[in-house]
Amino acid sequence: RGVGGVKMAAGSGGPAARELFAEGLLQFLRPAVRQLDGHVHAVRESQVELREHIDSLATELCRINEDQKVALDLDPYVKKLLNARRRVVLVNNILQNAQERLRRLNHSVAKETVRRKAMLEAAGGYPQGLPGK
User: Fold this and answer.
1) Are 112 and 78 in contact (CB under 8 A)?
2) Range of the domain at 97
């Protein structure tokens, strides 16, 4: 079955059926892209918060190390924290790139939806029985 209950066999149907299928596919993908974008945004925010906590902890460890009368070697722990911070920054950059790609995809989907809707309306509207949006 095709979009909206319209029966479609592979390779059958005219341009209107293909346009209707493409419109349905775009409508199907748009919420998934938006949801994924929202999740990526939330993860990026948590990554920034984690990086800030790591920075704060590293600063505090350095301060404790300087204030101690007994020499505690906290340098390895500070180095581990800084290494973890570096990894968090790398992950955040990857997420930022992925989110930008998602934004471009979402924009393309919206642009294509408008284009196809305009083509359908110019060709005489939507097929009978289907409401125009």
Assistant:
1) no
2) 72-124
Residues 52-61, mean pLDDT to the nearest whole number = 87
Question: Are both 107 and 120 inside the same structural domain?
Answer: yes
pLDDT for res 2: 47
Looking at the structure, tell me whether residues 100 and 78 fall in a common domain: yes
The total of structural domains in the chain comes to: 2
User: pLDDT tens, 8-53?
Assistant: 444 556 777 777 887 788 888 888 888 888 888 898 889 889 889 9
* Angle separating helix axes 75-122 and 15-67, nearest 10 degrees: 160
Asked if residue 30 lies in contact with residue 113, where contact means CB atoms within 8 angstroms, the answer is: yes
Distance set, CA 51 to CA 11, 23, 54, 75, 81 (Å): 53, 42, 5, 19, 10
Contact 120, 17 (CB under 8 A): no
